[in-house]
Amino acid sequence: MITLTDIQTRFPGAFDAVTEGQASLVIDEAAKEIVEDVWGNSYDDGLLYLSAHLLTLFVVSPGVGGGGGPVSSRRVGDVAVTFATTRSASEIASGQFGSTLFGQRYLQLRRSFQGGPSVPLGNSSVVY
């Protein structure tokens, strides 16, 4: 199982403000989302990136994944921003993972050995 120190060592400066308690809760949550026996030698890497993704979304930069998509137009006078709302099927399937580099890397790792779909279990899913 990874620790906050592992995350801070891998991503220097990005998680300095995170407390042990916050990290522990997020790592425990992330560990419920992947199956160690299936991930094998990649388990710690997957847990590291998924934890970093969740810490970014909920602790470091809450709401970073809440935007409507990439900016498709902007105007400076009277400030106007338009977000692109069309997303590809893969973006929809990946949910919020695309909103951070950590989530994107987690998806790359998951796709490298995932042969089938996620199996829903209540309010969460386990990746096989």
Give an account of the 3D structure.
The structure is a single chain. The strands form 2 sheets. This protein has a two-stranded antiparallel ribbon with strand order 1-2. The protein has a two-stranded antiparallel ribbon with strand order 3-4. The two termini are 18 Å apart. It is globular, with a radius of gyration of 16 Å. It is built from 6 helices and 4 strands. Helix 2 packs across helix 4 (43-60). It has 128 residues and is an alpha+beta fold. It is 45% helix and 12% strand. The longest helix has 18 residues, at 43-60. It has helices at 4-10, 20-31, 36-39, 43-60, 89-94, 101-111, and strands at 71-75, 80-83, 119-121, 124-126. The model is unreliable at 64-69 and 85-93 (pLDDT under 50). It has one domain (4-65, 96-126).
Give the fraction of residues assigned to helices.
40-55%
Total number of strands: 4
The amount of beta strand, in percent, is: 5-15%
What is the N-to-C succession of helices and strands?
HHHHEEHHEE
Number of alpha- plus pi-helical segments: 6
Distance between the termini: 18 Å
Note the topology.
Layout (H helix, E strand, L loop, with lengths): L3 H7 L9 H12 L4 H4 L3 H18 L10 E5 L4 E4 L5 H6 L6 H11 L7 E3 L2 E3 L2
Antiparallel strand pairs: 1-2, 3-4
